[in-house]
TrEMBL record:
Source species of the chain: Glaciihabitans tibetensis
Entries under Pfam families matching the protein: PRISE
InterPro entries, A to Z: NAD(P)-bd_dom_sf, PRISE-like_Rossmann-fold
Stated name of the protein: Nucleoside-diphosphate-sugar epimerase
Residue ranges of every copy of the PRISE-like Rossmann-fold domain listed in the record: 64-360
Length: 362
Protein backbone atom coordinates (compact mmCIF):
# COMPACT_ATOMS: atom_id res chain seq x y z
CA UNK A 1 0.00 0.00 0.00
CA UNK A 2 1.10 3.56 -0.61
CA UNK A 3 0.61 6.63 1.58
CA UNK A 4 -1.53 8.28 -1.11
CA UNK A 5 -4.33 8.97 1.40
CA UNK A 6 -1.91 11.39 3.08
CA UNK A 7 -1.11 13.17 -0.20
CA UNK A 8 -4.18 15.06 -1.43
CA UNK A 9 -1.94 16.87 -3.93
CA UNK A 10 -2.01 13.75 -6.11
CA UNK A 11 -4.63 13.48 -8.85
CA UNK A 12 -4.82 10.38 -11.05
CA UNK A 13 -6.13 10.11 -14.60
CA UNK A 14 -7.09 6.52 -15.46
CA UNK A 15 -7.33 5.91 -19.20
CA UNK A 16 -9.28 2.76 -20.04
CA UNK A 17 -11.14 2.64 -16.75
CA UNK A 18 -13.77 0.16 -17.96
CA UNK A 19 -11.21 -2.53 -18.87
CA UNK A 20 -9.86 -5.28 -16.63
CA UNK A 21 -6.76 -3.39 -15.49
CA UNK A 22 -8.42 0.02 -15.38
CA UNK A 23 -11.39 -1.17 -13.32
CA UNK A 24 -9.15 -2.67 -10.65
CA UNK A 25 -6.88 0.38 -10.68
CA UNK A 26 -9.61 2.98 -10.16
CA UNK A 27 -11.00 0.89 -7.27
CA UNK A 28 -7.64 0.73 -5.51
CA UNK A 29 -6.77 4.38 -6.11
CA UNK A 30 -10.09 5.50 -4.62
CA UNK A 31 -9.61 3.14 -1.66
CA UNK A 32 -6.22 4.74 -1.02
CA UNK A 33 -7.63 8.26 -1.06
CA UNK A 34 -6.55 9.47 -4.48
CA UNK A 35 -8.73 11.94 -6.36
CA UNK A 36 -9.48 9.99 -9.55
CA UNK A 37 -10.63 11.08 -12.99
CA UNK A 38 -11.47 8.44 -15.58
CA UNK A 39 -11.33 8.94 -19.34
CA UNK A 40 -13.02 6.97 -22.09
CA UNK A 41 -15.01 7.48 -25.26
CA UNK A 42 -18.29 6.52 -23.59
CA UNK A 43 -19.96 7.14 -20.25
CA UNK A 44 -19.20 5.02 -17.20
CA UNK A 45 -21.02 4.57 -13.92
CA UNK A 46 -19.19 6.93 -11.60
CA UNK A 47 -18.52 5.91 -8.02
CA UNK A 48 -17.83 8.04 -4.99
CA UNK A 49 -14.38 9.59 -5.19
CA UNK A 50 -14.11 9.90 -8.96
CA UNK A 51 -15.37 11.88 -11.91
CA UNK A 52 -15.50 10.92 -15.56
CA UNK A 53 -14.47 12.67 -18.78
CA UNK A 54 -15.54 11.58 -22.27
CA UNK A 55 -13.17 11.95 -25.19
CA UNK A 56 -12.23 10.05 -28.33
CA UNK A 57 -8.68 8.80 -27.74
CA UNK A 58 -8.15 8.69 -31.50
CA UNK A 59 -8.90 12.39 -31.92
CA UNK A 60 -6.13 14.85 -30.96
CA UNK A 61 -8.61 17.72 -31.19
CA UNK A 62 -11.09 16.01 -28.88
CA UNK A 63 -8.38 15.18 -26.34
CA UNK A 64 -7.14 18.77 -26.34
CA UNK A 65 -10.70 20.07 -25.94
CA UNK A 66 -11.42 17.80 -22.96
CA UNK A 67 -8.02 17.79 -21.25
CA UNK A 68 -6.62 21.21 -22.06
CA UNK A 69 -7.66 22.80 -18.76
CA UNK A 70 -7.14 19.70 -16.61
CA UNK A 71 -4.31 19.15 -14.15
CA UNK A 72 -3.15 15.67 -13.25
CA UNK A 73 -0.06 14.49 -11.41
CA UNK A 74 -0.27 10.83 -12.46
CA UNK A 75 -1.57 9.19 -15.63
CA UNK A 76 -2.29 5.45 -15.82
CA UNK A 77 -2.74 4.31 -19.43
CA UNK A 78 -4.50 0.93 -19.64
CA UNK A 79 -6.42 1.27 -22.94
CA UNK A 80 -5.90 -0.31 -26.33
CA UNK A 81 -7.93 -0.67 -29.53
CA UNK A 82 -7.49 -3.85 -31.56
CA UNK A 83 -6.97 -3.31 -35.30
CA UNK A 84 -6.89 -5.60 -38.31
CA UNK A 85 -3.10 -5.42 -38.84
CA UNK A 86 -0.12 -4.66 -36.65
CA UNK A 87 0.71 -1.58 -38.68
CA UNK A 88 -2.77 -0.29 -37.92
CA UNK A 89 -2.29 -1.26 -34.25
CA UNK A 90 0.86 0.86 -34.22
CA UNK A 91 -0.82 3.82 -35.87
CA UNK A 92 -3.84 3.80 -33.58
CA UNK A 93 -2.44 2.65 -30.22
CA UNK A 94 0.85 4.53 -30.30
CA UNK A 95 -1.08 7.54 -31.56
CA UNK A 96 -3.40 7.43 -28.55
CA UNK A 97 -0.44 7.57 -26.16
CA UNK A 98 1.22 10.37 -28.11
CA UNK A 99 -1.92 12.48 -28.49
CA UNK A 100 -3.08 12.05 -24.90
CA UNK A 101 0.27 13.20 -23.51
CA UNK A 102 0.44 16.06 -26.03
CA UNK A 103 -2.95 17.24 -24.75
CA UNK A 104 -1.48 17.32 -21.22
CA UNK A 105 1.55 19.38 -22.25
CA UNK A 106 1.98 22.26 -19.84
CA UNK A 107 0.55 20.39 -16.85
CA UNK A 108 2.51 19.27 -13.80
CA UNK A 109 2.77 15.59 -14.62
CA UNK A 110 4.90 13.61 -12.19
CA UNK A 111 4.52 10.07 -13.54
CA UNK A 112 2.92 8.15 -16.42
CA UNK A 113 2.39 4.37 -16.20
CA UNK A 114 1.70 2.27 -19.31
CA UNK A 115 0.28 -1.27 -19.33
CA UNK A 116 1.53 -3.53 -22.11
CA UNK A 117 2.09 -7.30 -21.99
CA UNK A 118 4.23 -10.32 -22.70
CA UNK A 119 3.71 -9.98 -26.44
CA UNK A 120 6.69 -7.69 -25.95
CA UNK A 121 8.68 -10.97 -25.92
CA UNK A 122 6.34 -13.20 -27.96
CA UNK A 123 5.51 -10.89 -30.84
CA UNK A 124 2.13 -9.48 -31.89
CA UNK A 125 -0.81 -11.57 -33.06
CA UNK A 126 0.38 -11.47 -36.69
CA UNK A 127 3.71 -13.13 -35.85
CA UNK A 128 2.89 -14.59 -32.45
CA UNK A 129 5.51 -17.04 -31.18
CA UNK A 130 7.33 -17.09 -34.52
CA UNK A 131 11.03 -16.65 -35.10
CA UNK A 132 13.70 -16.20 -32.45
CA UNK A 133 12.39 -15.46 -28.96
CA UNK A 134 14.17 -15.13 -25.62
CA UNK A 135 14.30 -18.10 -23.28
CA UNK A 136 11.84 -18.30 -20.43
CA UNK A 137 11.51 -16.90 -17.91
CA UNK A 138 11.34 -13.60 -19.78
CA UNK A 139 13.52 -10.79 -18.40
CA UNK A 140 12.97 -7.10 -18.98
CA UNK A 141 16.42 -6.47 -20.42
CA UNK A 142 15.80 -8.72 -23.46
CA UNK A 143 16.31 -7.03 -26.82
CA UNK A 144 13.20 -6.17 -28.81
CA UNK A 145 12.17 -8.69 -31.45
CA UNK A 146 12.81 -7.75 -35.06
CA UNK A 147 9.08 -7.40 -35.85
CA UNK A 148 6.55 -4.61 -35.85
CA UNK A 149 4.93 -4.38 -32.41
CA UNK A 150 2.63 -1.65 -31.12
CA UNK A 151 3.98 -2.15 -27.59
CA UNK A 152 7.37 -0.93 -28.81
CA UNK A 153 5.79 2.07 -30.52
CA UNK A 154 3.83 2.94 -27.36
CA UNK A 155 7.02 2.79 -25.30
CA UNK A 156 8.81 5.08 -27.75
CA UNK A 157 6.00 7.65 -27.53
CA UNK A 158 6.05 7.45 -23.73
CA UNK A 159 9.79 7.98 -23.55
CA UNK A 160 9.72 10.89 -25.97
CA UNK A 161 6.99 12.62 -23.96
CA UNK A 162 8.84 11.96 -20.67
CA UNK A 163 11.93 13.67 -22.03
CA UNK A 164 9.90 16.60 -23.32
CA UNK A 165 7.66 17.08 -20.26
CA UNK A 166 10.08 15.91 -17.55
CA UNK A 167 8.05 13.21 -15.80
CA UNK A 168 9.03 9.72 -14.65
CA UNK A 169 7.47 6.71 -16.34
CA UNK A 170 6.92 2.98 -15.88
CA UNK A 171 5.91 0.17 -18.23
CA UNK A 172 4.03 -2.82 -16.83
CA UNK A 173 4.29 -6.00 -18.92
CA UNK A 174 1.52 -8.25 -17.64
CA UNK A 175 0.71 -11.80 -18.64
CA UNK A 176 -2.94 -12.85 -19.16
CA UNK A 177 -4.91 -10.70 -16.70
CA UNK A 178 -7.55 -12.21 -14.41
CA UNK A 179 -10.21 -9.64 -13.60
CA UNK A 180 -13.71 -8.33 -14.08
CA UNK A 181 -14.83 -6.31 -17.11
CA UNK A 182 -17.90 -6.75 -19.29
CA UNK A 183 -17.32 -6.31 -23.01
CA UNK A 184 -13.55 -6.77 -22.78
CA UNK A 185 -11.90 -8.37 -25.80
CA UNK A 186 -9.24 -10.25 -23.80
CA UNK A 187 -10.77 -11.79 -20.70
CA UNK A 188 -9.76 -15.39 -19.98
CA UNK A 189 -11.09 -15.67 -16.43
CA UNK A 190 -14.56 -14.50 -17.36
CA UNK A 191 -14.51 -16.57 -20.56
CA UNK A 192 -13.73 -19.77 -18.66
CA UNK A 193 -16.50 -18.94 -16.20
CA UNK A 194 -19.00 -18.65 -19.06
CA UNK A 195 -17.71 -21.90 -20.63
CA UNK A 196 -18.10 -23.75 -17.31
CA UNK A 197 -21.54 -22.26 -16.74
CA UNK A 198 -22.71 -23.47 -20.16
CA UNK A 199 -21.22 -26.90 -19.46
CA UNK A 200 -23.04 -27.13 -16.14
CA UNK A 201 -26.35 -26.00 -17.60
CA UNK A 202 -26.13 -28.44 -20.52
CA UNK A 203 -24.49 -31.36 -18.71
CA UNK A 204 -21.37 -31.18 -20.87
CA UNK A 205 -17.76 -31.90 -19.83
CA UNK A 206 -15.48 -28.93 -19.19
CA UNK A 207 -13.04 -29.45 -22.07
CA UNK A 208 -9.59 -27.84 -22.06
CA UNK A 209 -9.35 -25.99 -25.38
CA UNK A 210 -5.61 -25.57 -25.65
CA UNK A 211 -2.40 -27.24 -26.76
CA UNK A 212 -0.43 -30.10 -25.24
CA UNK A 213 2.37 -27.64 -24.45
CA UNK A 214 0.04 -25.46 -22.39
CA UNK A 215 -1.59 -28.46 -20.70
CA UNK A 216 1.71 -29.93 -19.51
CA UNK A 217 4.05 -26.93 -19.34
CA UNK A 218 4.58 -24.28 -16.70
CA UNK A 219 2.86 -20.91 -16.98
CA UNK A 220 1.81 -17.92 -14.90
CA UNK A 221 -0.84 -15.18 -14.95
CA UNK A 222 -1.51 -11.68 -13.61
CA UNK A 223 -4.32 -10.75 -11.24
CA UNK A 224 -5.82 -7.32 -11.99
CA UNK A 225 -5.61 -6.25 -8.35
CA UNK A 226 -1.90 -7.06 -8.21
CA UNK A 227 -1.32 -5.20 -11.48
CA UNK A 228 -3.09 -2.15 -10.02
CA UNK A 229 -1.00 -2.34 -6.86
CA UNK A 230 2.19 -2.64 -8.90
CA UNK A 231 1.32 0.41 -11.01
CA UNK A 232 0.67 2.55 -7.95
CA UNK A 233 3.91 1.32 -6.35
CA UNK A 234 6.02 2.14 -9.41
CA UNK A 235 4.45 5.59 -9.69
CA UNK A 236 5.16 6.56 -6.07
CA UNK A 237 8.06 4.52 -4.64
CA UNK A 238 11.41 6.26 -4.55
CA UNK A 239 13.71 4.96 -7.29
CA UNK A 240 11.06 2.75 -8.94
CA UNK A 241 10.37 5.04 -11.90
CA UNK A 242 11.87 5.07 -15.39
CA UNK A 243 11.81 1.28 -15.66
CA UNK A 244 9.91 -1.45 -17.48
CA UNK A 245 8.68 -4.30 -15.28
CA UNK A 246 7.18 -7.71 -15.78
CA UNK A 247 4.06 -8.09 -13.61
CA UNK A 248 2.87 -11.60 -12.79
CA UNK A 249 1.36 -13.13 -9.67
CA UNK A 250 4.56 -14.75 -8.46
CA UNK A 251 3.46 -18.40 -8.62
CA UNK A 252 3.63 -20.87 -11.52
CA UNK A 253 1.32 -23.76 -12.35
CA UNK A 254 0.42 -26.32 -15.02
CA UNK A 255 -3.04 -26.29 -16.58
CA UNK A 256 -3.30 -30.04 -15.99
CA UNK A 257 -3.21 -29.10 -12.27
CA UNK A 258 -5.41 -25.98 -12.49
CA UNK A 259 -8.14 -27.26 -14.84
CA UNK A 260 -9.68 -29.81 -12.40
CA UNK A 261 -9.73 -27.15 -9.69
CA UNK A 262 -11.68 -24.74 -11.88
CA UNK A 263 -14.03 -27.56 -12.84
CA UNK A 264 -14.54 -28.40 -9.17
CA UNK A 265 -15.71 -24.86 -8.44
CA UNK A 266 -18.50 -25.19 -11.01
CA UNK A 267 -19.34 -28.82 -10.36
CA UNK A 268 -18.51 -29.96 -13.88
CA UNK A 269 -16.40 -32.83 -15.20
CA UNK A 270 -12.95 -31.77 -16.46
CA UNK A 271 -11.45 -33.12 -19.66
CA UNK A 272 -7.81 -32.43 -20.46
CA UNK A 273 -5.81 -32.29 -23.66
CA UNK A 274 -6.53 -35.17 -26.04
CA UNK A 275 -4.44 -35.37 -29.23
CA UNK A 276 -5.19 -31.82 -30.48
CA UNK A 277 -6.63 -28.49 -29.27
CA UNK A 278 -10.43 -28.33 -29.06
CA UNK A 279 -11.03 -24.66 -29.66
CA UNK A 280 -13.67 -22.75 -27.73
CA UNK A 281 -14.74 -21.01 -30.91
CA UNK A 282 -15.73 -24.49 -32.14
CA UNK A 283 -17.01 -25.85 -28.82
CA UNK A 284 -19.19 -22.80 -28.19
CA UNK A 285 -20.37 -22.19 -31.76
CA UNK A 286 -24.13 -21.64 -31.86
CA UNK A 287 -24.43 -21.14 -28.09
CA UNK A 288 -25.59 -17.52 -28.24
CA UNK A 289 -29.28 -18.38 -27.95
CA UNK A 290 -28.52 -20.88 -25.19
CA UNK A 291 -26.71 -18.22 -23.20
CA UNK A 292 -29.55 -15.76 -23.74
CA UNK A 293 -31.97 -18.37 -22.37
CA UNK A 294 -29.72 -19.03 -19.36
CA UNK A 295 -29.53 -15.29 -18.73
CA UNK A 296 -33.31 -15.04 -18.77
CA UNK A 297 -33.83 -18.08 -16.53
CA UNK A 298 -31.29 -16.92 -13.96
CA UNK A 299 -31.86 -13.18 -14.20
CA UNK A 300 -28.33 -12.46 -15.39
CA UNK A 301 -26.98 -8.99 -16.04
CA UNK A 302 -25.89 -9.64 -19.63
CA UNK A 303 -27.69 -11.83 -22.19
CA UNK A 304 -25.26 -11.05 -25.03
CA UNK A 305 -22.62 -13.78 -24.85
CA UNK A 306 -20.13 -11.70 -26.83
CA UNK A 307 -20.10 -9.21 -23.95
CA UNK A 308 -19.04 -11.78 -21.36
CA UNK A 309 -16.78 -14.20 -23.25
CA UNK A 310 -13.91 -13.78 -25.72
CA UNK A 311 -13.42 -17.28 -27.17
CA UNK A 312 -10.80 -16.20 -29.72
CA UNK A 313 -8.51 -14.72 -27.10
CA UNK A 314 -8.61 -17.70 -24.75
CA UNK A 315 -8.05 -20.02 -27.72
CA UNK A 316 -4.96 -17.98 -28.66
CA UNK A 317 -3.65 -17.93 -25.08
CA UNK A 318 -4.17 -21.63 -24.37
CA UNK A 319 -3.28 -22.75 -27.89
CA UNK A 320 0.33 -21.59 -27.72
CA UNK A 321 2.98 -24.22 -28.40
CA UNK A 322 5.55 -22.37 -26.34
CA UNK A 323 6.16 -22.00 -22.63
CA UNK A 324 5.34 -18.56 -21.24
CA UNK A 325 6.75 -17.59 -17.84
CA UNK A 326 7.97 -14.15 -16.75
CA UNK A 327 10.60 -13.27 -14.18
CA UNK A 328 9.68 -10.84 -11.35
CA UNK A 329 13.20 -10.42 -10.02
CA UNK A 330 13.57 -6.81 -11.17
CA UNK A 331 10.55 -5.73 -9.13
CA UNK A 332 11.72 -7.68 -6.09
CA UNK A 333 15.12 -6.03 -6.15
CA UNK A 334 13.43 -2.62 -6.45
CA UNK A 335 11.35 -3.34 -3.34
CA UNK A 336 8.01 -4.66 -4.62
CA UNK A 337 6.85 -7.72 -2.67
CA UNK A 338 3.26 -8.19 -3.87
CA UNK A 339 2.11 -11.77 -4.49
CA UNK A 340 -1.16 -13.36 -5.59
CA UNK A 341 -1.95 -17.07 -5.74
CA UNK A 342 -3.46 -17.66 -9.18
CA UNK A 343 -6.03 -20.22 -8.04
CA UNK A 344 -7.31 -17.69 -5.49
CA UNK A 345 -7.51 -15.01 -8.20
CA UNK A 346 -9.74 -17.27 -10.30
CA UNK A 347 -11.97 -18.19 -7.36
CA UNK A 348 -12.35 -14.58 -6.22
CA UNK A 349 -13.32 -13.58 -9.76
CA UNK A 350 -15.87 -16.41 -10.03
CA UNK A 351 -17.38 -15.40 -6.68
CA UNK A 352 -17.73 -11.82 -7.88
CA UNK A 353 -19.27 -12.87 -11.20
CA UNK A 354 -21.85 -14.91 -9.32
CA UNK A 355 -22.63 -12.15 -6.83
CA UNK A 356 -23.09 -9.61 -9.64
CA UNK A 357 -25.19 -12.10 -11.63
CA UNK A 358 -22.84 -12.22 -14.60
CA UNK A 359 -22.96 -16.02 -14.33
CA UNK A 360 -25.62 -18.13 -12.56
CA UNK A 361 -25.40 -18.52 -8.80
CA UNK A 362 -26.37 -22.15 -8.50
Amino acid sequence: MTDASLRPDRHALVVGATGIAGSALRTQLIAEGWPVTTLSRSAVVEVEGERHLEADLRSPADLTRVLGAERFTHVFFTAWARQATEQENITVNAGMVRDLLAALDGTDLQHVALVTGLKHYLGPFESYGQGAMPDTPFHEEEERLDVDNFYYAQEDELWAAAERLDFTWSVHRSHTVIGHALGNAMNMGQTLAVQASLCRELGLPFVFPGSETQWNGLTDMTDATLLADHMIWASTAEGAGNEAYNVVNGDVFRWRWMWPRLAGYFGVTPEGFDSEPRLLETQMAGMDATWAAIAQDHGLAEADMSRVASWWHTDADLGRNIEVVADMGKSRVAGYTGFRRTEDAFIDLFDRLRSERVIPNW
